[in-house]
Amino acid sequence: MKPTLMERVKDTTVGQSVFRVPARNTPREKAEGHWSNFFLHLYPVKVPREEIGFKYSWYLGVISLTLFVSLIVSGIYLMFFYVPSPTTAYGNIQFLQTQVPFGQFIRNVHRWSAHLMVLAVMAHMAKVFYKGAYKPPREFNWVVGVVLLLLTFFLSFTGYLLPWDQLAYWAITVGTSLAAYVPFIGDQVSQLLLGGNQVSSATLLRFYVLHVALLPTVLVMGIVIHLWRWRKDSTLDSGGDLDG
User: Which stretches within the chain are classed as H helix?
Assistant: First the structure.
């Protein structure tokens, strides 16, 4: 049989340096392919069919992830027109809504995606609790899910100040005041968020960095761990013996 184009490419010197894994035919060889590949290792060799169906989870996790992607895409667009400064922040928002093409639409997409993501993640957690999916061997992933829920709340909270209007100002004032009541470290947490003793330009800058850089990065890392553990725990439940 005449070799295919891909086979001819793999036979070249460059191809052999890139495609180092031989053809895998048996189930064991295919499993080894998953173990040796960083990206494929996120997925186990096999997963119970019912766990990827609509009736099991109502796709609430998928919905939450889709909304998060929507927030990232719309947020990047908004960043082109926003400067985290008390003298320009509110004006940037007004300019975005009235002068920027699709500015009002993108801001509404970002705003509603944030609200819906909070609801979807809460519903997802409630569904998991109702199904008893927090029990062994899934208890660690339940903890990861709780952390992701808190990060979702923090993302929503930090984004609240960015328009720099009266509603945002007083909401953050109340929120940071509540943080001061955390036992032992309340005052330090409040001052860390405010960048001082009251809402100021330092507060806006800190909330901006938290909202667009730190919290999304931590959330992405948590989602990767959450998905990885979900697939691995699914394999353990099904009695799979090819994946560790």
Answer: 5-11, 13-18, 27-36, 54-57, 60-79, 89-98, 103-131, 139-160, 166-179, 186-194, 201-209, 215-237
Q: What is the pTM of this model?
A: 0.79
- Per domain, the residue ranges of the chain are 49-131+138-235
Q: What is the pLDDT of residues 144-175, one digit of tens each?
A: 999 999 999 999 999 988 999 999 889 889 98
- Determine the Cα–Cα distance for residues 25 and 31; give it in Å rounded to an integer: 10
Task: Write the pLDDT tens digit of every residue in 203-213.
Answer: 999 999 999 99
Cα(193)–Cα(125) distance, rounded to whole angstroms? 27
DSSP state, residue 164: -
Q: Which residue has the tokens 């799979």?
A: 240
- CATH number for the region 49-131+138-235 comes to 1.20.810.10
Q: Which two tokens stand for residue 162?
A: 């960015």
Cβ atoms of 140 and 211 within 8 Å: the answer is no
